[in-house]
Amino acid sequence: MALLNVNHLKVYYPVRGGFFRRVIDHVRAVDDVSFSLNQGETYGLVGESGCGKTTTGRTIIGLIRATAGEVLFEGTDLTKLNRRQFHAYRKDIQMIFQDPYSSLNPRKRVLDIVAEPLRNFEKLSPQEERKKVQYVLERVGLSAESIYKYPHEFSGGQRQRIGIARALTLNPKLIIADEPVSALDVSVQAQVLNFMKDIQQEYGLTYLFISHDLGIIRHMCDRIGIMYRGRLVEEGTSEDIFTNPQHIYTKRLLSAIPNADPRDRSKQAALRREVEEEYAQAYSHYFDENGRAYPLKPISPTHSVAIP
Amino acid sequence: MEKQPLLEIDRLRVSFQIDGDYYAAVDDVSLTIGENEVVALVGESGCGKSALALSIMGLHPPEKTKVEGCLQFKGTNLLSLSVSELNRIRGKEIGMVFQDPLTALNPLMTVGRQIEESMDYHLRLSGAEKKKRTIRLLERVGIPEPEKVYHRYPHELSGGMRQRVVIAIAVACEPALLIADEPTTALDVTIQAQIMGLLKELQQQMKTSIILITHDLGVVAEMADRVAVMYAGEIVEWADVDTIFHRPLHPYTRSLLQSIPSAQTKKERLHVIQGIVPPLHKLPRRGCRFQPRISWIGADKHEPDPKLREVEPGHWVRCTCYQHFYFPDDQTVGGVGYGAS
């Protein structure tokens, strides 16, 4: 059984206007999205800014209320739980945030930052707590003395590892990583990505990896969902998406990635022109009259595309 | 490379004041930018690439910055000019595109007014001529319905459109040199592809040279003619783009290329450069600055006072350590990578 099933998830925001500020329309931030995560895999949610990928992640962890749909975590629908019932599941789902500079409280010591989840869930003595914090910090490659330091004393990569340590303290089953490396330099980025892979193996973690960077997505993810305007337009294994993209939006996204070989410049430019032309011509074929993508249809056991 | 240099940077050193002492953020940088050429400055944050660009524009606060060396632009040394003389050049002969289009634009001014501002300063044009020229410019940078956008405010435009406006401002007076500081970093990939296409097109049409500052090697591979790789304020490698990507020599260039996840191919592990870039006031002032980060290469392999040397025509490398450099096996790389403190 899948660890997480997201079924027909919708997050709508009302648009008010006119007389009495009535609801005249909705912004469909997440519009009927379904996917599932298997135990131990990394699922990548990709798309450009405003496509709803972050909203999806935050809804799963309960930071945003779903308008409709289900989030089944080990079979329990999280959207139907009340605060107290949800509390029990908070332990199992943790989040790594994008910006290590704003996601760590500058006035707290590393000990207090990393121990915060522990204090919410487990009653430990200060000694036990310190031991546990030191243990996870060592796991992420920070020295045991760093518990008495403040976030500003660390570099960007180290801060992101503190963020990861905080997410790890409660031995979660699912980690939602929302652009975990986009604020970091390339060499530090490599360090954090390698590390995330290592702890995944060690703890058997499942990742929902949200990113706009297709290079990182290809490196990290087993399966990928491409989002556009609140809907999934294509889903498949990393191989399906990168070597056999079917939806015009996926093709456009892939052709826009800068090619890392200067010798392929003209080839890449030609490909881009070709895809742009196809995009202009075939747009109406891939989207209905309201500009919404069609529901996903399987074209192979692993690969689904939003086509009519 | 038989192009006439448009800008010649000679032994430039830019130092900032920290606690009363000056520390060089850009050290011993010599470069030439030819006519109609795209030169990329690549490196991670803190390597001095933006400090270098800002010194060409004379935008460092003079009371806290020391700029030494020579910046020869079309035969005049920019560093010897007074502010009013410099004002005749920047904005007209040298244009600049900033990273974040939202902060680069004035939110209280219409798009048209902002583009006309530099024309007011540098060109003598009547109101009608200015407007005509501005609308033509907007059209040229690919903005649909330029007559309407002329009257709009920045907040009414999308990120990609704003960056097009910033580019329109930079090229309003048809500069000979355009400095683009991370022009696509704040944008989505599809928009990034469009902006890169636009810059390339303008460069070819207007015969402009571009200094492209970026940390994104993909953008470099697509745009640049020649590339200067910077580390800790120095140029460590300087060559044409094909050499940098296919025959890089300096350990930093090679490590950087190994550490990027690529959408074209899948590798199991990424290379991690061990350690961190030291802060400006703790930089080693003698010896190879990259030495602490490739500690498995013996100290005797480095030069005591590394210089940028031409190892083959047009290919410059700093320090001799590249001759002995190799990647350690994966195990050790992973191990030392995390142990950084």
From TrEMBL, chain A:
Keyword Protein transport among UniProt keywords: no
PROSITE patterns listed in its UniProt record: ABC_TRANSPORTER_1 (PS00211), ABC_TRANSPORTER_2 (PS50893)
GO process annotations (BP): peptide transport; transmembrane transport
Keyword set includes Transit peptide: no
Highest rank taxon of the organism: Bacteria
InterPro entries tied to this protein: AAA+_ATPase, ABC_transp_ATP-bind, ABC_transporter-like_ATP-bd, ABC_transporter-like_CS, Oligopep_ABC_C, P-loop_NTPase
CDD domains, A to Z: ABC_NikE_OppD_transporters
Keywords: ATP-binding, Nucleotide-binding, Transport
Family indicated by similarity: Belongs to the ABC transporter superfamily.
Protein name in UniProt: Oligopeptide transport ATP-binding protein OppF
Source organism per UniProt: Geobacillus proteiniphilus
UniProtKB/TrEMBL annotation, chain B:
Protein name: Oligopeptide transport system permease protein OppB
An example Gene Ontology biological process: peptide transport
Location of the ABC transporter domain: 7-257
A single MF term (Gene Ontology): ATP binding
Record keyword Hydrolase present: no
InterPro entries hit by this protein: AAA+_ATPase (IPR003593), ABC_Ni/Peptide_Import (IPR050388), ABC_transporter-like_ATP-bd (IPR003439), ABC_transporter-like_CS (IPR017871), Oligopep_ABC_C (IPR013563), P-loop_NTPase (IPR027417)
Organism: Geobacillus proteiniphilus
Gene Ontology, cellular component aspect: plasma membrane
Family label: Belongs to the ABC transporter superfamily.
Keywords tagged on the record: ATP-binding, Cell membrane, Membrane, Nucleotide-binding, Transport
